[in-house]
Amino acid sequence: MTTSGTGRALSFDELVVSTERKLLRLGLMLTGGVHSAEDLVQTVFARAHRKWDRIQALDNPEAYLRTMVLNEFLSWRRVLKNRELPVAEPADLPSAEDIGARQAQRDATWQLLAQLPRQQRAVLVLRYYEDLPDDEIAAVLGCAPATVRSNAARGLATLRNNLPAEEEH
Amino acid sequence: MARLTDEELERLLRETFADKEELLDTLPQATTTRRRPVAPVLLAAAAVLVVLGSILYGVNRGGDVNPAPPVAAAPAGDNAEIWAAAITAVTQKFQPEYDLRSVDLSGQTFVVMTASERTSRPPVFTVPEKDRIADQVARAANVQVSWVDGSLQNQHCIRSRAEVSVGKVVDKDDHKEVRTSIAYNCGYGYMLTYRIEKSGGRWTVTGTVGVPEGVIPAGCPLTQSSPANRQHGC
User: Fold this and answer.
1) From the CA of B181, how many Å to the nearest CA of chain A?
2) What single string gives the DSSP state of each residue in A77-122?
3) What is the set of domains in chain A, with CATH numbers?
4) Which structural domains are found in chain B, ordered by start?
5) Size of interface A-B (CB pairs under 8 A)
6) Residue A99 has pLDDT above 70, yes or no
7) Residues of A whose CB is below 8 A from B29
8) pLDDT level of residue A126 (50, 70, 90 thresholds)
9) Contact present, A44 and A67 (Cβ < 8 Å)
10) Does B66 touch chain A (CB under 8 A)?
11) Is the pTM of this model over 0.80?
């Protein structure tokens, strides 16, 4: 990959600058916390730095980093779950003082998302935040499109069963 | 009351993700695109030439001079810069949320003591190392830095002050690792290991190693709402 129009090879620093915020946003949606997202993306950048020679030669290093973030999230959550280590990170959960019904519903959704199995959450984030089609999500996660659809359906069903309906006006 | 339809649920999810994006606004931009100024590089090159010239001058004078004991202390070395990078990183991690304005640093490196290590004292920072770390952290994180000898246990709780300790610099061939801990917000703690690499002549934090650990004060809930709504003392 080259920087636009110059024909010059993309440097690692340039890739970090251009992708950092985007990856942090994806990390936030996956982990549900700002500091967790930061740790996730830092870890991915460190790994990417070690194999920069290979990543640099790819057509789309940014997409590769996105896949790294997803894979890191899936394995990382597994580690956390196994070790049961408490982390002194204030979770970004809704407050009881939110008065807008719609805002309360969004907060409830955010809270429920955090409780979904990581595969289901990843699928919902890629589908409704990254706006990826199911076959692309399947390619990123390394599974069949049918698996993506079933994970999405299960995730949506959990949300629907636990969310209060919108008030009818 | 009807349950949400697929369409309503999808719209709600999109709104939720868009709504939560703003949580990232609390994070500082970790990287910038500014160009590095040329003047400091030229100045550094000139300084190297002056030092080399002085050495050559001294060598050529041979036996004409009486050797005098060195007056200046040993240079701080790379370790000071590595420690400073770790302290800066952990400070900046919590600075935006807790408005950290001063940092106390322990005068000794902390170590998880093994049986063989218990017989020896933990390493102590040299004065040049302390000066260089304090200067670098103060400039990079824009905080007031103080060195505290012995235990880092403040009697007075000040929310804008954090206490930071670092472990020995562990050499991993292609990079270094430093165990780092911070006590902040009157009772909270966070411990992690930073991976630090030399890039462009400077030691830079490039990631973390393993899973961070943390502690919260007894009686505080594990999950909390926004900082404005936190339970008093938590």
Assistant:
1) 12
2) HHHHHHHT-----------TT---HHHHHHHHHHHHHHHS-HHHHH
3) 1-92 (1.10.1740), 97-169 (1.10.10.10)
4) 75-221 (3.10.450)
5) 140
6) no
7) 20-21
8) very high
9) no
10) no
11) no
